[in-house]
Design brief:
Layout (H helix, E strand, L loop, with lengths): L20 H18 L11 H45 L1 H16 L8 H22 L2 H21 L4 H20 L17 H10 L1
């Protein structure tokens, strides 16, 4: 007499077919968290490797934020600033109202560069660089020497425009040069935002101290 004996078997194991690295990383992190959670009641908790691991994770997080967010943002801002400055320079160069002042100055420097050890083009760009330098230093650092130099720069520019322009437009071009210089001087020669306080120390007068006593 034969009997069929069947051996009970456990439930079939379900294998995870997702072998991508995010899933593996998630599984590893979940297992590590369970181990840490179970070991909190031990006397040797936290383990020695926890603090270095947290430090490494913090460094990796900062590097991820730096290379993934900060650097692209800085590159975008840099490209925006460069494109804005480049477009502004082209706009000013092609604008006829600026040419009213710049063209006479360039013609004056070209006509009076004979005998100099530099050519007219280098003299022109040196003059422009000097004006930009004086304007920036006078605006942001409010240096006295830079402000005096800015005043002389504006006077010399207006004089060169007056000397180069001929005919009835001489007064007009000199006036436009003066308006440009005044508009820029609103920034270069401005006063500081904080008002200066002057403290005056008066000498002590004994007879003023006796006046209230006489009325009592």
């Amino acid at each position: 007499m034969s009997t069929d004996a069947t051996t009970p078997t456990g439930p079939a194991r379900i294998e995870d077919t997702d072998a991508s690295w995010p899933a593996m990383l998630n599984e590893w992190a979940s297992d590590l968290w369970r181990r840490l959670h179970r070991g909190r009641d031990r006397d040797d908790w936290p383990p020695e490797w926890l603090i270095p691991a947290v430090g490494v994770a913090g460094v990796l997080l900062v590097a991820l934020l730096l290379f993934g967010l900060v650097l692209p943002l800085l590159r975008w801002v840099g490209r925006l600033v460069v494109n804005t400055v480049d477009g502004g320079v082209d706009w000013l160069r092609d604008w006829n109202l600026t040419r009213v002042v710049l063209d006479p100055v360039r013609d004056y420097l070209t006509a009076h560069s004979a005998g100099l050890p530099i050519d007219a083009e280098t003299l022109w760009w040196t003059w422009c660089a000097a004006g930009v330098f004086l304007f920036l230093v006078a605006t942001f650092w409010r240096a006295v020497a830079a402000r005096l130099g800015w005043v002389l720069f504006g006077a010399a520019t207006t004089a060169m425009v007056w000397a180069t322009t001929t005919g009835p437009a001489r007064t007009t071009t000199a006036g436009i040069a003066g308006l440009w210089w005044i508009a820029l001087s609103l920034f270069a020669l401005r006063r500081p935002w904080s008002q200066q306080k002057v403290a005056v120390h008066l000498p002590e007068l004994p007879w003023l101290a006796r006046i209230p006593q006489r009325h009592e």
